[in-house]
Amino acid sequence: MLEIQNLNVRYGEFQALFDVSLRLSEGETVITVGPNGAGKSTLLKTISGLLTPRSGSITFLGKPIAGLPAHKIVRLGIAHVPEGGRLFPQLTVLENLKIGSYPKKARSEFAAGLKEIYHLFPILDERKKQMADTLSGGERQMLSIARGLMSRPKLILLDEPSSGLAPRVVSRVFEFVRHIKAKGYAILMVEQNVRKALQLSERAYFMESGRVRKEGTQQAFLEDPYIKKAYIGL
Amino acid sequence: MVELLLNAVVNGILLGGVLALLAFGMNLIFGVVKILHLAYGQCVMLGLYFIYTLVVPLGMPIILACLIVLPVMGLIGFLLQMLVINPLLKAKANPLTQLLALAGLTIVFENLAQVIWGADLRGINVQLPLIHFGNIFLRTSNLIAFLGALLTLLGLHLFLNRTYLGLAIRSAAQDLESTRLMGINPRAIYYFTMGAGGALTGLIAALFSPIYAVHPQFGGSFTMMAFIIVVLGGMGNIFGGFIGAFIIGIITSVSAVLTSTEIADIIALIIFIATILVRPQGLLGIKVSK
Amino acid sequence: MLRALILLILLAAIAIFPHLIPSPYLIHMGTLIFIWSFVTTSWSYMGRFGLVSLGHGAFLGLGAYTAGLLFNFYGLSPWIGMLLGGLIAVIFAVLIGYACFRFGVIGDYFALVTLALGEVVSLTIIAFRDITGGSLGFTLKSMGTSLLYFQSEKKIHFYYISLAFLILALLIWKWIDRSKMQKALRAIAEDEIAASTLGVGIIRYKMIITVISAFMTATGAVLYAQYITYLNPHTLSGVGPSLEIAFKAILGGMFSLWGPTVGTALIVSLEEYFRVMYGGTFVGFSQIIYGLALVLLIIFLPKGLYGSLQDFFSRKKPDWTQK
CB neighbours of A198 closer than 8 A, spacing ≥ 6? Predict the structure, then answer.
């Protein structure tokens, strides 16, 4: 479904990604882990079109998308939930969800999508008339993921969904991600909480200093001594 | 005396209605494009000149001229975005530079008006009847302008809150980057906003045309008025602009009757200065830490 | 040393010029350029440190009308009137400046406040039309050629007096540039919060530079009024002249010594050119060109014409500081 080859991305003079390659199939959940500054967020931003790569290719459902503007990529079926959620603070919960369904194809499914979200997440239904900036951290994260879903994507990019959240809330967020996975969405997730994230995913990539250092299945990563020590705390 | 004051208050309210439209346009542009459109009043002035030219030398019926001026001014708004605002944004100019550039634009517009139409007053000379309720006298033209303005504001409110595009615009005002991830093209939003803002100046000109005769300095005082209102209400805050418009409308109207038009303007300016000094976020704005 | 020599030669040329080419028209142009360069240079004392004022018309009006009215009504010598006018401008500047600086009003907000203030002064002048003549202005009583009453029937006197004023303004610019104050103001302009944590007396320095600028602008207005012997609130106060001063300085380059003068000379010449070429029909044409030029300039050359030229030439010199 998603094929990235030899991606090079720069911020001005600083190169953030070096020859990054990655693939993801339909319905798969893939995670990318690694230390801070490894370029994981940059990778997601390049896929979603917020950044333009210097070289390399990104193919989604057979179509090359590298360098396309972000709003076009959304319409093709990729939803990017950025780190921290980036909700619209002065819009209500309902309005945030509505704007998520902005792409024309998603508008006709707005009512249906809304029902699904409220079913999965009754708290959002309760708070639907509240301003987004009055929600708690966990609720905000759920809302931003829900908002991403409203665009009826085929692939969801999640950037550190657990960041800044208390452990109990993190569990709920991952529950949510599990539900989404069960519905058949393809997910590419960047996460610091490797243990929980690995439990959900089929495959994983380990990145460091802008390069992909390791690629493997869930099992391979769980057994890898380096990763176990550094990230899973065993 | 009481009647005089009452008349002043009523007329202030009528004026406030149209000023509210002016403030709306400015707030919309400030909210989305993040620019203080210092030449907004001058755009209204251009609209008035267009209407004048269509009606008087070219003999077009007034209603038709008023309808035509809307898309024309919308186009001018769009051109301003392309030719002035985009380069300013691209050059990453600070707010002061933007202010200066737009101030330069006001000079261009005012002198363009002077060159093309001369310094004399240009009006379309429409005589509409006077209505009175007891001892309160209203000009029909003012009443029409007021009702037109209110209707438009209602329509704009519905547009912003009930349609997808309106929602997109409100989102863009809050977090432009994130709108890209919603499938919204920020460039398109900019152009639309500037175009809509322009069309609004056309509408205001249409509403003003039976009331005022235009001259090259006409834009200046309305820009200043709009500024005062927008700052008072809180920049970018549409409801604040609405309230501010009526406050300023009534205060200036009453002051003008009690003292003189110059002193009324001075009072409005003092309110403006006081707002910036004491409460720069305006009545309804959110405080932004420096 | 070479620069000083060139300057002296230039000065001598300008001084002798009216005797070589006794054209009253050119002398008039020269005088206007000197007077307004004096004013725009004074403006730039504030402008170059980030205190961009769009309301210097207030100082113009306060200065000129104080001196002019005191002269017309009480026969007070305009020299004293100039000092008094300057004083009033200073008081005004102190009040407003303190209010702004105390409340931390900077940048574009500061510009807007000054803009409003310029208009307030202008409207006040117009409102008291019984005394000031309102929008129509008033004429100074003629005293022939008199040093005491600062009038002359020979334009050339004002040519030299204005030139002297301009030289004074340029010297003061240099003095400020070399002073400790300049460093403080530069720091404030770049990062006010950082500067304040270093103990720089922010309000004090801003006030000093504002007071100097206000006083000089006011005296420049009196000079102009005495030359033209006519005062009008639309040329000596309000938005129009305020913007013009700022723009002339910015066009030429408000960060440099000669920038404001260059900008003023260009604009005044341009306006005269259009007035002569196209007469009354195209009044305002020059303004359109200059407005457009300004917008383009502000976007593409933030340092103004002269400033950018300076940059361009200094780039050509080898940089001895590079290792």
Answer: A31, A204, A218, A221, A222, A232
At A222, the amino acid letter reads: L
Q: What is the pLDDT of residues A94-135, one digit of tens each?
A: 999 999 999 988 888 899 889 988 888 888 888 889 998 898
pLDDT bracket for residue C285 (50, 70, 90): confident
Chain C hits for B272, CB-CB cut-off 8 Å, are 112, 116
Amino acid at C234: H
Among candidates A71, A87, A89 on the partner chain, residue whose Cβ is nearest the Cβ of B184: A71
Check residue C222 and give left, alpha or beta (phi > 0: left; psi -120 to 50: alpha).
Answer: alpha
How confident is the model over C287-301, as a mean pLDDT?
A: 77
CB distance B99–C292 less than 8 Å?
Answer: no
Task: Tell me which of B96-100, B250-254, C297-301 is least confident.
Answer: C297-301
CA distance B159 to chain C (A): 31
Tell me the domains of chain A and their CATH numbers: 2-232 (3.40.50.300)
Residue in A71, A87, A95, A145 to test binding to B, most B beta-carbons within 10 Å: A71
pLDDT band for position B164 (50/70/90)?
very high
Neighbors of chain C with 3 or more C-beta pairs under 8 Å: B
Closest-CA residue in chain C for B92? C299
Residue with tokens 């709920």: A172
Which 3 state secondary structure label does DSSP give C301? coil
B243, B20 Cβ separation under 8 angstroms = no
pLDDT digits (tens, 9 = 90+) for B12-56: 898 899 899 999 999 999 989 888 888 899 999 999 999 998 888
Is pLDDT at C318 greater than 60 in this prediction?
A: no
What ipTM is given for this predicted complex? 0.87
Burial code (b: 16+ CB inside 10 Å, e: under 16) for A190-203 equals: bbebbebbbebbbb
Q: Crossing angle, helix C155-178 and helix C2-20, to 10 degrees?
A: 170
CA–CA distance, A34 with A40 (Å, rounded to integer): 8
Q: Domain with B78 in it: what CATH number? A: 1.10.3470
Q: What is the pLDDT of residues B59-88, one digit of tens each?
A: 888 888 889 999 999 999 889 888 888 888
What is the value of pTM for the model shown?
0.84
Domain count, chain B: 1
State the Cα–Cα distance between residues A206 and A184, nearest whole angstrom: 24
Nearest to B182 among A49, A89, A102 (CB): A102
Give the other-Cβ count within 10 Å of B160's Cβ.
18
**What does the alpha-carbon distance between residue B265 and residue B263 come to, in Å, rounded to a whole number?**
5
Looking at beta carbons, which residues of chain C come within 8 Å of B100?
Answer: 52, 111, 246-247, 250, 294, 298
For residue B269, which residues of chain C lie inside 8 Å, CB to CB?
Answer: 116-117, 119-120, 123
Domain span at residue B247?
Answer: 2-92+104-278
Using an 8 Å Cβ cutoff, are C217 and C40 in contact?
A: no
